Amino acid sequence: NQEREEAHQLNQQLQMKLAGYFQRRANKDVHQEWSASGQHEYEKHLQALTDLKLQLRSASESAQRQAEELEMQAQEK
Description:
The protein has 77 residues and is mainly alpha-helical. Helix content is 97%, strand content 0%. Keywords: Coiled coil.
């Protein structure tokens, strides 16, 4: 009877250890998933900012050329 009680207690301890292991593993997996998702979002937004910067540079250069052309036209008149 005492052996049975010891086996039962050992069984409970092992089940608790397993439950803790699986809980930590699940938390770790969720954290890694969030980290990967966050990295993807960061890269997506960084690319959008880079694209906008290029568009701004292009628009600025175009506006500068137009201003120079208008200035030349005004001087010709």
